[in-house]
Amino acid sequence: MKVKRFIYILHPGKANYPEIAAYTSYFQDAYDVYSGTVEDYERFDKKSECILWCIMGLYRKPLEAKFVIHDYRSLSVGAMPWLKDAVKKYLNVKPDLRIFQNQEMKNVMAFSDGITSILLPMGVPDYIYDIKPHSDVQFHQKFCYIGEMSRERGFDKVLDAYVKNYSEDKLVLIGTPEEYIFEKYSNFSQLMFLGRKPQEETLSIVKACEYAVCYFPYHRPHKFQAPTKLLEYMAMGCRVVCNDSPSNIREINRFSYDCILTKSKVFTDVSPFLDSRSEVLSVEGLGWDEAIRGSMLELYLL
After folding, report:
1. How far, in Å, CA of 8 to CA of 44, rounded?
2. What residues contact 45, with CB distance under 8 A and at least 6 apart?
3. Three-state DSSP class for 164?
4. Which of 159, 180, 225, 238 is in the most buried spot, having the most CB atoms within 10 Å?
5. What is the C-alpha separation between 302 and 298, in angstroms, rounded?
6. 126-273 placed in CATH 3.40.50.2000
7. pLDDT digits (tens, 9 = 90+) for 24-66
């Protein structure tokens, strides 16, 4: 008789976690996979038999489990992120295994307690390699940006540069903008705010546009993390315009991808380079399944 095995993916419940779907998909044939917050886990009746996989927040109290993983997908954001990370480092309970997105994040946290750690890079949905351009011609525009639109990330300065330098070409914006940004910029005809869309439709809209825009901040914690959108654009073989943030440059160099690299506001100095780039080839092997396999994580699971 086959013995049932369990994984419970614990998360703080404050953000979108695409990795949870990826982990669930990868392990669901060999494990029963659940996910939820600490409050949800308290009601779970197989604690002593399960692998508890914690997407890291602050977990000060020990939680019953057969094996505990602390997964640092990202570092802290907001005010004094360095202090929040220090609190996580010194006040979180000790796991059996730590996972980091990359070596840079591992170096920042700098644990020295002898607990084993592995690297599991960000991945992209495996279906991304089959994405086709959206059929609706209204989405066949010059530029497309997906993601967070906030002043904390400096995105208002990007939009200022766009409306100043582009009067005809449209920039498609997918995601939920900060209220201030929407109120200030939604009346500009060259900006097309679409709100949130299902992921597959979002990617098909990007594929329909001439250029995908990857704007990523320069400050902590963003400078240590891989820009997921840039990885998605690379996987789809998009022509990419991106600012010269440390994370963008690191991933461009890692994959030798031909991007149009700009300064911080993106649209102040991009025009001379447009329409001069040939088509680029998609980067293979960026899917979540390959990332998980390559991490050798399964060697540590009981």
Report:
1. 9
2. none
3. helix
4. 238
5. 8
6. yes
7. 999 999 999 999 999 999 999 999 999 999 998 888 889 999 9
